[in-house]
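Problem: given the chain below (408 residues), write out its structure.
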Amino acid sequence: MIQRTIKKYVIDSLDLYPVIVLTGARQVGKSTLAISLQKEFDFHYVSLDDIDNRRMAIDDPKLFIQYHGYPLIIDEIQYAPILLEVIESICNKARIEQKKSTGLFILTGSQAFQMMRGVSQSLAGRATIINMSPLSVNEIRGVEEKPFKVNMETMKKKFIYRSIDELFKEIHRGYFPELYNRRNHSSEKYYSDYMNTYIDRDVSEIINLKEKLKFHNFMQILASLTGQQLNYASLSKEVEVSAVTIKEWLSVLQASGIIYLLQPYHEMSMKKRIVKAPKVYFTDTGLACYLAKLKDYESLLASHFAGAFMETFVVNEIRKSYLNNNQEFDAYYYRDNNQNEIDLILLENAQLTLIEIKKGVSFKLSDVKAFKQLKNSQYKIKESCILCNTEKNYPLSQNIFVMSVNVI
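Solution.
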């Protein structure tokens, strides 16, 4: 079984919080991680996917907890949010009676919107929320994962080069654990089943979705736009629903971990000349390929989607490197009305790292001329880079490097 980087932070949290909440998209490995913790730390385990368990939890939540005992792992907690009130009472009582009050419950759930609303209302101050992503490249390789930094250490880092064909094979397959636990599993069949489950079970329970075909069409169109700016009016016209509905559907996809929105970067001095719409990224490139009807990696690599899907891959991997280390991913992109663009901007410790993402291998300083747009930033500009398919890292200047995507 592939070891998950986030596991050590979940274990650390058992000594700090009464409740640990694992959330993320369906099938990213939450249940697998929870079951591994059950075996290691002597937790009881119950899944609310089982209809009898769910009925008991809803009908008599106090009896449910008494029957199963704790410390307890409750899988798919969103199916019985009434349990959160009982869990709150147990946590409060443990504190008052000065009994063991940490590591009492691990809760997992795929529908972050509903679940987080219940957690914020009932378990404020008692729970830590840990978001799980699909597998990272480092997890697949069994390599230690650290938050990605652009510096001389990363510049000189040894890496295993993957050809562009190898890279796009992986991008096309995607990063859900099941596809790596069963490597002969057809990715097309996997994503077909995934979509049927997601729309029929998760989406229908979050919103009153009368037009499933339109929603599926919306997801297909959105997948073809991964790595691009959102245009609500254009989407509204193409899907034939209102802009309000488009925003509602986007919030559902965000809440369930299917997409990630990257907000535009601005400071007061540049506010008038920057664009305001976010960029959308599917959190898994394989799912996006399936929805965009890119049947194989050769079709993807030869298409006009190739650059955007590579950008999606890079943003996802850098984001995972932060989330998997339980750190905030404070990231943006820049584009102004003169078409100057910077693909990714990381803000950390009042310093900016500027990143351009390209499919080629050979570049010069003129390829990052947009970096100059932030020369008067209120923040210091750190070392920055172009991430691409180069076989060998090299500097463009003292503070700007060209680096392989394999160093992430």
